[in-house]
Amino acid sequence: MHEFETLIERGSPDDFLFRQLDPARLPRHLAIIMDGNGRWAKRRGQARIAGHPAGVEAVRTTVENCARLGIPTLTLYAFSSENWRRPRLEVTMLMRLLQECLRREVPLLNRHGVRLRFIGRLEALSAEIRKALDYAVTMTADNHRMTLNVALNYGGRAEIVDALRAVAREFKVRGRSLDTLTEEDVARHLYTESDPDLLIRTSGEMRLSNFLLWQMAYTEIFVTDTLWPDFNRTHLLEALVAYQRRSRRFGGVETVGVPVPALA
Ligand code: FPP
What sign for the dihedral angle of Cα 133, 136, 140, 145? Predict the structure, then answer.
């Protein structure tokens, strides 16, 4: 927390926002749907795909800010299983950007203590991309300040299907009947280790877009009209302040900050 504070100018809007935050009640897991790269570029009279490199800059600052704030898990939606339908040139560019970014940013991730993980059906990615992912995951494996999950070729329904297949295999090995299946059994086989407390979606769209469908049953949702490449520290702090003003009841009557345990 100290490191974050020293980077904010006294009396600035960010200082004003930061002072409203209770460090003990920050989201433990923040998820972001980074939307609006194409519109950002078009508004500047550029080709849609020119928005993606600008989006990478916003990824870098957001990762740094979340690590400095002490948010333990950040999950970013980088490429959905539906994104393959985009023009070939755009898909190639996104994959190349990711590859370059991984090679370049490993030292930054290590400096901030960020452990990188990828979630999604990674086996469908090219061998070259998978090699780049493995490199970055291995190089950051010993970091413990923050876990950064990057969703790639990710679909929420596909994740649930994968979890159910894994559960079925496990039950077969253990001789357990599927009639004894619990929510915990499914959750144990999901790609993520925890559920997001807060989802931020940029560019004003009010959709989940097949992102973390199981995990977001009780997630608070914050939608901003800001396009992803413009998303900065002020926007992040605004979302966190708004989150802390919400009353989270998890289906009950009063929030105590802890979700009710799932029913068997
Ligand atoms: C949505 O904008 C954004 C994406 C589909 C890709 C997000 C990827 C990045 C920000 C860069 C790579 C990521 C990492 C983690 C290095 P859009 O093109 O759908 O925007 P539009 O809706 O305005 O067209």
Answer: negative
